[in-house]
Design goal:
Blueprint lengths: L1 E2 L16 E2 L3 E6 L3 E5 L10 E3 L33 E9 L6 E7 L9 E5 L7 H10 L17
Antiparallel strand pairs: 1-2, 3-4, 4-5, 6-7, 7-8
């Protein structure tokens, strides 16, 4: 059985959520304190190696004729959701962090508050064609590998 204490599910309240899930087959031991599990497709996006403190042995029911209804699949909230970039509108160097940021227009969010946002360069690395087109149209704008920081004291 796998403890779900560090896994975010789609349930609205952690307090009322399922505490354990499984049983899952242990594929192999990874190092001395971790095991790789065979997870179902509903848990896609979750790394399949867990520390042994999160695992408990499965105990079948004490009375063989007593069959509890198995719980439904655990629906995991994919933390690594990716949004698709529609266009890049601008670029800048953040004054506080000194890091390059792009003003990104997101696909499918037109007309909402999330339609456009300033994002660090790491969040738009997958949109290489759109980045290239933006810098072709705006060659003077800050770009990755060409960020110049001012050394003047503030």
């Amino acid at each position: 059985m796998l403890s779900l204490e560090n896994i975010k599910t789609k349930r609205p309240m952690k307090k009322l959520d399922v505490k354990q899930s499984g049983p899952y087959k242990v594929v192999r031991q990874v190092g001395s304190h971790a095991c790789k599990l065979e997870l179902p497709g509903t848990m896609a996006g979750i790394h399949d190696v867990f520390h042994v403190s999160l695992l408990r042995p499965y105990h079948p029911p004490m009375f063989p004729g007593q069959q509890a209804e198995p719980p439904g699949p655990v629906e995991v909230d994919n933390v690594g959701e990716s949004w698709e970039v529609k266009d890049i509108v601008d670029s800048r160097v953040n004054k506080r962090s000194g890091k390059l940021e792009y003003l990104v227009q997101w696909l499918g969010y037109e007309g909402s508050d999330d339609a456009v946002s300033w994002e660090p360069v790491e969040n738009v690395d997958g949109a290489n064609d759109i980045l290239a087109k933006f810098h072709e149209l705006h060659p003077g704008k800050p770009r990755k590998g060409r960020v110049v920081r001012s050394r003047a004291r503030k």
